[in-house]
Write a structure and sequence with these properties.
The complex is a heterodimer.
Chain A lengths: L1 E2 H7 L3 E2 L9 E2 L1 E4 L3 H7 L4 E5 L5 H9 L3 E4 L7 H9 L3 E4 L4 H17 L1
Chain B lengths: L2 E7 L9 H10 L6 H21 L4 E7 L3 E8 L7 H4 L9 H4 L8 H8 L2 E7 L2 E9 L8
Antiparallel strand pairs in B: 1-2, 2-3, 3-5, 4-5
Helix pairs in contact in B: 1-2, 2-5
The chains are: A alpha/beta, B alpha+beta.
Chain lengths: 116, 145
């Protein structure tokens, strides 16, 4: 387990939402761009890694109580989506690397944390 | 019955997908305080809502009947109907248009999510329309993540 703050300190990840509670703890990550797959499999202690940036992702995160969404490959949502996420206390993050790369890095950090 | 809710759903209104599921979840959180139950209910209603937006000619409706121990959802529309029900229930099979797929819909998983998370599932379809009825029971036997 680690906080989102730790995650953003250890990896080149930018926080897009203001007033985000970066002490929120995450236990794992789930990577998918298929929305139904996220509804089926993502966990409420996951960071959701995706390239989807439209507003519907916030509905998915709310329903599944996913605390945090990480956009990869330099993609980022429009200002409206960021504002809505702030209102709903969903943390939005962004990085330049692919979902594969950042997923691997997060996996390494979380498993290292478990083994520590 | 404790409560009854009704929502019209407009065809091809992709930005609206999920809005009814979230509204139901917010309205019922006092009736059903367990967050796992509300997650399960939310997933099922989201998928039914998405199907009405993506696959209907003229939209449809969601009728939500709230009982003490369960919620019954009736999603209905007036066509074009599901051509092959057994294919539609096969994971990975989808007839969603490219416009929906680009947004991350149309993975061929949605209806199976409802089957997986609901406790009762009934689907009937003809050219005149489709009716999907399912119930999500408030018990501890099924859990989502």
């Amino acid at each position: 387990m680690m906080t989102i703050k730790q995650l953003t300190e250890l990896l080149p990840i930018e926080v897009l939402t203001k007033n985000a509670d970066l002490d929120t703890a995450i236990e794992s990550a789930y990577s998918s761009d298929l929305l139904s797959q996220v509804l089926a499999k993502a966990c409420h202690r996951d960071v959701w890694i995706t390239v989807q940036t439209h507003a519907t992702i916030l509905g998915i995160a709310s329903i599944k109580q996913i605390p945090c969404i990480l956009f990869t490959e330099g993609l980022r949502p429009c200002a409206e989506v960021i504002t809505k996420a702030e209102q709903e206390s969903i943390i939005l993050l962004a990085c330049q690397t692919t979902s594969f790369q950042v997923g691997g890095e997060i996996y390494k950090l979380l498993t290292k944390e478990e083994g520590a | 019955m404790i409560n009854k809710l009704f929502f019209p759903v407009i065809t091809s209104d992709y930005p609206s997908i999920g809005s009814k599921a979230l509204e139901v979840k917010k309205k019922l959180k006092d009736f059903f305080p367990k967050s796992d139950y509300l997650r399960r209910l939310g997933v099922c209603i989201f998928e039914a809502e998405a199907n009405l937006v993506i696959h209907t000619n003229q939209g449809g409706s969601l009728e939500i009947l709230v009982f003490k121990d369960r919620v019954r959802i009736i999603a209905s529309d007036k066509g074009p109907g599901i051509k092959d029900l057994s294919k539609a229930l096969t994971p990975g099979y989808s007839t969603a248009p490219e416009s929906a797929r680009q947004l991350g819909f149309g993975g061929g998983v949605g209806i199976n999510n409802i089957k997986r998370f609901a406790d009762y599932f009934f689907l009937t379809s003809s050219k005149q329309g489709t009716t999907l009825l399912f119930e999500v029971w408030n018990d501890d036997d099924k859990a989502t993540n």
